[in-house]
Structures are given as C-alpha cells and as structure tokens.
Amino acid sequence: MREDTLVCSIQREIGMDRSKKPMTKMMAALAAIIFMIGSMVLFFDKPLKAQAAGRSVAIDSCLISGTDVVCHIKTGSVPASDDGKFYIYADEVYLDGTAGEIVASVKAGTSVSVSFPLNYNTADSNLSRKFLVAVKRNGQMYQVSDEHYITNPEVLAALTSPRMNVGIKGILPEIEKIANGDLQELGIQQVVYNMHLDDICSGASVPGAIPFEYNGQTYYFDGEMVKNYDGAVRTFNSYGMQVTMVILNGGKGTYSQDLVHPSARDGVCEGYALNIADAAGTNYLKAIGAFLGQRYSGRFEYGQVDNWIIGNEVNARTSWWYSNSTSLDYNVNNYVKAFRIIYNEMKSMNANVRIYNSIDQEWNRKSNPGSFLAKEYLDQFNYYMIREGNIDWSLSFHPYNSPLYDPYAWNGPEAWVKESISSPYITMQNIDILIDYMHQKQFLNPAGEVRSISLAEIGYTSDFGTDAQEASIAYGYLKAASIPDIDAFILFRHTDDAHEMESHLALGLCDLSGNKKPAYEIYKNLGTSNEASAKERASQIIGMDIDQMIRENIVWTRPGTGVVQ
User: Fold this and answer.
1) Are 358 and 372 in contact (CB under 8 A)?
2) Confidence class of residue 563 from pLDDT cuts 50, 70 and 90?
3) E-strand spans in 21-93?
4) Which residue from 274, 333, 466, 529 puts its CA 20 to 30 A from 312's CA?
C-alpha cells in the first residue's frame, strides 16, 4: 500500500525535496538545463523503439502447436524486397528490431503461416521471446511488423490443478496469527501474501540452496525462505483458502541485484522495476516464473497458489515500482515485458493460474506527482497487450477511500468521488465505473469475456470511530459481493500497524494489543447465515438500509475534500 505520507526518497528528482527552500530563478533555470541534458542522455542511452505507424505487415497470432511455434502473418500489400521473402526474428525482450535471431523465413504473401521450433526449456527457448517480421532491401533487413508474443503458453502445462474458488472474502493475515484460529473464525476464503524476490534468490554456495535447472542454466533459491513460504501456503490450503501471492522486488538481496532494472538502481524505495534490460535479468526472471509456477502448482507437497500479482500499485512509480524515467510509455513498456515473461513461464506450468497487474485508486488525480494516473497506466498496459498479442491477464485494483484515512466508505468527499469516468478517484462507492470500463470490447480477454477483477487490497480506519469502520467494511464487502465480475475482496490488515496509525490509518480488525475491534465481529458475520445481523448493524450506522443503498447504487457525497471534522 502506498500511504500519502510515505514518499520515497529519490536522489535525482529535482525540486521534490520539500524540506528545502524553494529554488531561485537561477537555480530553477540551471535545474531545467540539467534535466534536459539528463533526459537526452536517458533517451539516447536506450534503443529507439520503432512506432507502429507505417508498418504494413501484421502478425495475427503466434501459437504453440506441438513442439513448434506457428505464426500467421497478414498484410494488405506485400512490401517490396530483394528476394520476396518474410524473415521471422525472435528477439529477447531487451532487444529491438532486427537484433535477434532469424528463426524462419517464408515466401511473402498477403496471408501466410510460418513455423519454427519452440525449443522449450533449452538455451534457445522461444517461449518468452517476441517475434517480428522483416524484409531484405538493398541487402539490409527492415522491420515491417510490430512485435508479437506467444499467447497460448498454457498448452504446455503438465501441472494444471483445479482452482480453489470458494468465495471473495479475504484478508492479509498476520504471520503470528495464521495458526491461532482467527482465519477460520472469520470465515476467510482467500488470503493475500507477499513474496520478496530478494528473499528467495540465492547462490550455489548458500547452505540448503535449492538448485533449479532451466533453459540450460542452473539457478538457486534460498531453501530456508522458500520452505517458509511452503509452510504458509500449505497451511492456508489446509484451511480451504485460496492463495494470492504478490511478487515484490525489494532490491536488497545479495543474489537478486540482477533483478533491479538499470533505471531503478539510483533510488531508495519500497519496490523497484524488474530488470528486463539485459540477459542476466531476463533469464533470471524466466527461471523465477517457471520455478514458482511449478512449485506452487498444487501438484507437489509445497501447496497451491492460484493467483499471482506482479508488483504492487505499479503506477506509483516513486514508491512501489521505481524507475528514474518519468515517461509513461517507457515504464509501462518495461512492466509489460516483465509481466509477459512471468505470465508465459507460469502458465506453461499450470494453465489455471491467474496473473494480475496492480494499480491503485488514483484514477484521474495524483496525490504524489511522481506517480502515474491509474487510468492512463491501465490504458497503456492494455494497448501493448492488444498490440503484441492478447492474453488472459487479470486486474488487481485497490479501491481505498480518498483520502486514505477517510472513515466513510459510503459517503465520500464530493471533490474526489464522482459518478463519472472523469472521477479523480475510484473507491467502493463508484467501483461500477471501473467495472463498466473493463466491459469495453478492447478490454475483454481472448475469449471475449470480462477479465478477473480482484480487489486485492482495501481497508478502513477505526481512528475516527469503530462504528465507521464497521459500516465501511460491511458496505465494501456487500457491494463487492453484489458484482459478479469481482473475484476477491481482501482486507488490509488483520492487525493495526503503529507506523500507519501515525497517519490515522488504524486499518486492522484487531488493535495493537491484539484485542478484536467491533469490525472483527461484523466481518465474521458477512457472507454467513448471520449476515442479516451485520447488515442491520451497518444500516443503523449509515442511516439507510444497506441493501437498498447497494441495490439502487445510491451514492452519497459530502462537501469538501475529506477532512474529518
């Protein structure tokens, strides 16, 4: 979660340090010149990405068929060439244009198919590479299509397990309370758990390291840490609970430095962009996806993870997915590449896993100028997914109140919560805006269906009264349960956090002493035969029948920007 009060210290951001005096005009001019020079260096230091305009050839599909990849190519007009051939290049994600390997050629035509070996689990594996079409002119190769990825990795999956879909009611559990009976008493059906890659990556010399041979190399994972995750996942599964794992890149591990993107190595943040800029990071990421997809497929004794979220609130650039580039396209493009690698590697192990991106509630307004708007990030993410091969990606969304410490889920500030696509924030009050948005044709999955939408992190404070927290949790859960497209409602947190409470964020169902708040009881009753009592209590606090409010989509707002009086 990104708190408004927690802004990452970025050493190279100009003018972002509010503890210092305002810049003079001369200082501002000098800063502008430095920024321009830095931007030029940043721009020319990276391969130029050709744009789609003018590319007359389209790769319609790249699909695994047996041990081969079959690409179908279409064009309205065959481009001129020296030899009348199309050449198919397989590029690693950090390469652009005709820098990769030619894997096939075929006589050019308006509609042709070409195949080449998949080379699965070898040094020449094409599973997570991108493909493009080129022609030869005057002895030089020219790219004439956009890139396209394999979109059916699940056909390889030999470890597919039935999903543990039991309901939407979830929580981020406290490690110390996993075995104390709270989760069962609360009727929890889903848990979300964080996995830091810098915790699980290891080296050959580390005692107990787990070797994993993949694509012709051997990688190592920390045996002690991995077994801790095994134990947690197995325990949740034994309780009949579905597991969602969030993959985080903390950048602190000795053996995980290759996983930090070069553009992120100057930051001091909670989370860093994954490295898809070179062979070391890319190959490591492939192995991680395959290792985790295999180990937690449910076909071994390690447990089953049904859902994987890649990063946390990745539009919050300076907090959770740091890169020193302020370009939306650059950041999204890099994220998409990492997402595709993990997606293809995991789905090739277990066809039923779902892979989620993660954005926050700041739909059309930034509380932190270093972030990207959630809507623009989602739009750009989907653009690349459609352009480079549609896959069944899923959406993780965090519909917190705005501001975060606002205690009233059913009555938000009119300045921030609006019933329109231009709303500054999307909270549980106007979550239907997001749902309708995801129903648009361009956002549907390859089967033409609405994607899985997980509200994988949401919480309400008790700092301004426990009754407000009770009613907010009831309102949020019941509204989520009323929308068929929502597959998870996961509360953050189980127990209050002292640091968050400094910002009025007492989000737990239990206080710092472990005492259960009234919200604990109301959440326990929701989704059970005792739900009527929870509804009655919430209706009493709100001053209106909560079923009617949700059924008729009644949206109350109050004047101002949410300062609690």
Assistant:
1) no
2) low
3) 57-65, 68-75, 85-91
4) 466
Question: Is 47's pLDDT higher than 50?
Answer: no
Compute how many other C-beta atoms are within 10 angstroms of the C-beta atom of residue 496: 23
pLDDT tens digits, 89-139 = 999 999 999 999 999 999 999 999 999 999 999 999 999 999 999 999 999
DSSP code string of 464-493: T-HHHHHHHHHHHHHHHHT-TTEEEEEES-
- Range list of β-strands (E), 183-262: 190-196, 210-214, 217-221, 242-248
Q: What is the DSSP string of 113-130?
A: EEEEE--TTSTT--TT-E
With tokens 């787990």, the residue in question is 210
For the entire predicted model, the pTM comes to 0.90
Question: What integer is the mean pLDDT of 484-498?
Answer: 97
For the cut 80, the answer to whether the pLDDT of residue 372 exceeds it is yes
Which stretch of DSSP H or E encloses residue 539?
Answer: helix 531-542
Q: How many helices (H) and strands (E) does the chain have?
A: 13, 22
> In sequence order, what are the residues at sequence separation of 6 or more whose Cβ sits closer than 8 angstroms to the Cβ of residue 265?
none
What's the mean pLDDT in 62-68?
A: 98
Answer yes or no: is pLDDT of 258 > 90: yes
Question: What's the CA gap between 342 and 285, in Å, rounded?
Answer: 7
Tokens of 337: 């590449």
- From residue 347, how far is each of 5, 221, 344, 533 by CA, in Å? 38, 20, 5, 42
Per residue, the 3-state secondary structure of 431-461, as one string, reads HHHHHHHHCCHHHCCCCCCCCCEEEEEECCC
Q: What is the dihedral sign for C-alpha 397, 399, 402, 406?
A: negative
Amino acid at 484: P
Distances (CA, A) of 320 to 247, 285, 313, 316: 11, 18, 6, 6
CA 90 to chain centre: 26
Residues 383-389, mean pLDDT to the nearest whole number:
98
What lies within 8 Å, CB to CB, of 368 at 6+ separation is 2, 4, 7, 316, 318, 319
Pairing of strands 9-10, 57-65: unpaired
Interatomic CA distance for residues 444 and 34, integer angstroms:
43
For strands 453-458 and 411-413, give the pairing: unpaired
Average pLDDT, the chain: 91
558's tokens: 């109050």
- Other Cβ atoms less than 10 A from the Cβ of 326: the count is 16
